[in-house]
């Protein structure tokens, strides 16, 4: 039962934070004018993917907080959240494609490190980060391709 009491806090933090940053840094004319690779998905796909991933990130965070709040895994969870929330302002607001690529590569490394570290503490938390790792890898390839094309 403690998870059900804690999960709303993590959902508000992660989903609410992600939605707020997405709203404040929504892609605009600058992004639309960029050359994009052929594998760039349609814009409508990003919101449902990120909403789903943010819910999974919140579940993993709440579970880890209850099981190992002083662990390296939970520190990695917080670091990935900071990096995740930093990417959109750097890319969409500051128009800094190269630094955004650095952030997303650091995010990918942190997500993978989280999966490894949390595997020993809570396998479900590690497993729900697998789709996140796959999406961040794809987003990193997309960011890199956009950098090369522009």
- Write the CATH architecture name: Up-down Bundle
Cα-atom Rg, whole angstroms?
16 Å
Number of strands: 0
Structural class: mainly alpha
Major sheet: none
| CATH third-level topology | Ferritin
Mean pLDDT: 96
Helix content: over 70%
In DSSP terms (H or I, runs of 4 or more residues), the helix count works out at 7
Kindly, what is the distance between the CA atoms of the first and last residues, rounded to a whole number of angstroms? 51 Å
Shape: elongated
Spell out the CATH superfamily: TspO/MBR protein
Order of helices and strands: HHHHHHH
- Write down the CATH class: Mainly Alpha
Poorly predicted regions are: none
Question: Can you tell me about this structure?
Answer:
The structure is a single chain. With 150 residues, the protein is mainly alpha-helical. It has one domain (2-149): TspO/MBR protein (Ferritin, Up-down Bundle), CATH 1.20.1260. Helices cover 81% and strands 0% of the residues. α3 packs antiparallel against α4 (72-93) and α4 packs antiparallel against α5 (97-119). The longest helix has 23 residues, at 2-24. It is elongated, with a radius of gyration of 16 Å. It is a multi-pass membrane protein.
């Amino acid at each position: 039962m403690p998870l059900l009491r804690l999960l709303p806090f993590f959902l508000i933090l992660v989903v609410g934070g992600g939605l707020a940053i997405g709203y404040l840094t929504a892609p605009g004319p600058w992004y639309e004018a960029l050359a994009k690779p052929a594998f760039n998905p349609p814009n409508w796909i990003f919101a449902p993917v990120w909403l789903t991933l943010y819910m999974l990130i919140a579940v993993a965070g709440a579970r880890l907080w209850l099981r190992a709040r002083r662990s390296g895994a939970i520190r990695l969870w917080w670091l990935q959240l900071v990096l995740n929330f930093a990417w959109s302002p750097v890319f969409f607001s500051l128009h800094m494609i190269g630094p955004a690529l650095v952030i997303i590569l650091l995010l990918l490394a942190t997500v993978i490190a989280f999966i490894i570290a949390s595997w020993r503490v809570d396998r479900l938390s590690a497993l729900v980060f697998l789709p996140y790792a796959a999406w961040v890898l794809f987003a990193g390839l997309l960011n890199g391709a956009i950098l090369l094309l522009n």
